[in-house]
Amino acid sequence: MSLESLSAGPALPEQAGRTRHRAGWRLAVGRAWPGPKARISLAAVALVLTLWQLSGSLRWIDPLLLPPPSEIWVAAQELLQSGYRQTPLWQHVAISAGRAVAAFVVAIAVGVPLGLGMGRWPTLAAVFDPFVQFLRPLPKIALIPLVIVWFGIGEGAKFFLIFISSFLSIVVGAAAAAQGVSQARIRAAQTLGASPRQVFSHVLLPDALPGIFTSVRLSVGIGWTSLIAAEMVAANAGLGWMVINAGTYLRTDVVLLGIVLLGLTGYLFDALLLLAQRRLVPWAGRDA
Asked: What total number of domains does the chain contain?
């Protein structure tokens, strides 16, 4: 043992604390720094935005047909200050999001139990499946005349169009998730004396939840795309209405701004559902 090592002595507590702090900081930075896949995605987005901006700045494409990002940014600042048609921009976003969320919540609350029941009991599936399979591929815009007759031109019509677009896909997805549950597990639980309620809560639902979340995410996307059709029904505010109205005045910068906001809001919905899935279904993707 050398003299230097003897004289150094053990590390002081404050030195150990600083070492741990530096190690924790490096770990946090490493986690926050985007991985290879994220960096490729960011680079792709940056490249597309650059080419898009150049196409307008260099007049490769008429800015009236495809305004560059700089013009969309100017339109966003303008609408943030003065709104669109006497309605603040944030209110257009909030109105559309509120309509969609209300319809999504009801569609999930009704569609998931019905789908699970159809997947579990063939008789129930035989009753509802013909109607679900007939209505699901039907273009929802074709329902607008009937919806106006049934619900008028108020919020009920908009709610119904978004609801029916989401509900039917949720039912099909939940039924498929229930049918995919291992029958061996169900029989094993019954053999051990589990009641029907326990079979549902401890076997069927945990096994089906990953598939249910996947179907809900897809269905929410489908319902969100129906927003413009819903807001064609005598609306005077909302992102879908703003896009349609701006198009009639050739405000393509506002149209594209509305499309960007629709995409970002839909992306946020999906991100929240994915976060909920990771919290509520941590076993998804694990081997059985």
From this structure: 1
